[in-house]
Amino acid sequence: MDNFIFQNPVKVIFGRNQVASISAEIPKNSKVMLTCGGGSIRKNGVYDQVINALDSKPIEFWGIEPNPVFETLMKAVEIARAEKIDFLLAVGGGSVADGTKLISATIPFDGDPWEIVTRKVKPTKAVPFGCVLTLPATGSEMNCGSVITRRETKEKLSFQNPLVFPRFSVLDPTFTYSLPTKQVTNGIIDAFVHVTEQYLTFPAQAQIQDRFSEGILCALIEEGPKTLNNPTDYDSRANLMWAATMALNGLIGCGVPQDWATHMIGHELTAFFGLDHAQTLAVILPSLLWVQRDSKRHKLIQYARRVWNINDGSEAEMIEKAIAKTRTFFESLGLPTRLTALGATEDISDLIVSRFQTRNMLPMGDSKNLSADKIREILMQAQ
Length: 383
Fold this sequence. Notes:
By secondary structure, the chain is α/β, with parallel strands linked by helices. Helix content is 46%, strand content 10%. It has helices at residues 40-43, 46-53, 70-83, 94-106, 114-117, 181-199, 207-229, 234-247, 261-273, 277-291, 297-306, 315-332, 349-358, 372-381, and strands spanning 11-14, 32-36, 59-61, 87-92, 129-133, 145-150, 155-160, 168-171. The protein has a 6-stranded parallel beta sheet, sandwiched between helices. It has a two-stranded antiparallel sheet with strand order 6-7. The longest helix is centred in the middle third of the chain and has 23 residues, at 207-229. It is globular and about 65 Å long.
């Protein structure tokens, strides 16, 4: 296990009716801006509960998209500056939380905000914010990462900064009851792949992290379908919500190698084809595991045994079965694992590779052995 520092300052307020406590978490006399998505929180009653819990009526900003768009977020920054906002409250899914992180860092920033996203500069101040989560998926409610899309250049990039940890996050599983099936499925896949990117690498003698990761994966496999079959099963919803949070709050990544190549490739597919983030992950992960099966051999065998209970056959056969089980699981939830099934038939592999080369991102992967040719092979396997 490598050396590490783990510090997560987010206060998680979990369970039924917890949103009523948020006024106590926001400094008195704060001027609050509510940041929201497309309006579903008005329909399911979450908006009313949030407004009733606040001491005063907030300024509201609506319209943060799935895969939050830089140009939209800058409109929120303009309003926040004009209104002298000093606290933000993100109400929605991971995209709203991600977008609010960039708004938070940009309000006091004097410079080109896109340079925060491209990591050319690090913000030194940020407006504090809290989160009321309505869609378990990204873990953004308990981490300091954010993924932003720039419509003008068709780029989707991520940044991290400890200044944009939420001060608190309210996680009420009942807020997820009305989610469309597609969003629940996407959340399961997103959380699942977050875990594999920190777990399916190479051995680091980190037994606690491995067992936590395997537990989260098993919980997603068991509880995910239950939430789809019975949307108001509180216990399944609660387990799914907590699994998605634990998948990317930093804990299972302590002291272990990580491989975010599936996400990096997936971000490019979203930017070019407009696919849901989870759709790209479901397509890329099985193909990447197959192409990288030799360098990931030890962990893939462990994954086969501990997560899928595969104990028969040669090691090569176990690996093949585990990857096949992963693909089957994704498809059982209703997500295709081939680009052609999603209508993304244009070959953009050279364009993706060129972008990675321009950003000096190659070779990538946990072993730094994922070359341009291997990325092309992954995309070919994913067709």
